[in-house]
Design a protein that fits this description.
Elements: E1 4-9, H1 14-23, E2 34-39, H2 50-55, H3 57-67, E3 73-76, H4 84-89, E4 95-97, H5 98-107, E5 113-117, H6 121-132, E6 139-144, H7 155-171, E7 177-180, H8 189-196, E8 200-201, H9 203-217
Helix pairs in contact: 5-9, 7-8
Amino acid sequence: MAPRILVINPNSTEAVTRGIDEALEPLRFPGGPRLDCTTLAEGPPGVESQRQVEAVTLPLCRLIEREDNRSHAFVIACFSDPGLYAAREATRHPVFGIAAAGIATALNLGDRVGVIAILKASLARHARAYRAMGLAGRIAGERAIGLGVVELAEEKRTLARMREVGVALRDEDGADVLVMGCAGMAKYRAALEETLGLPVVDPTQAAVGMAIAAVALGYRTN
């Protein structure tokens, strides 16, 4: 049986999970690990506040514990990396957070990273994470499009706002690589990259790519 990587959407919006699953298609290949996506039923429609980040931690860990025997790595597909460290205590397998993976990937594609967030309320929470990673000095800027997770399904409006924010990050903040700051933005990566002429990182793709490498190389986590 092929190794399995489980990608968990910690919000309860199935449309986001479907978008993640579609975005992972280029990472599925013969002989590679099985990439399964699932939705945390107990999660809110969108993880958009610190309270919601904390609230999904325990159900997320319980899900990982249930899936531990038939999975070889896990990806938490939310840019707040909710429950990441607790989840790593719940399994013997590698667990990847998409924010950490997305920023790490961006640093290999450019020098100054711009992040496209969903809501202004996310900015302070993300900034704390960058400081904790010791990478605040590499973040050129982060700007919000002013749309919640559920609203990201409005394709024309969302892409227009992402392009507007991406231009500002490029031209005003000096970013030379962009990271999309929400798993629900996955479907917009190619169009955004073509418009802006900069590398654009989908953090879920980045995290799954790392998980594939970790499984293939047999990395240990403890």
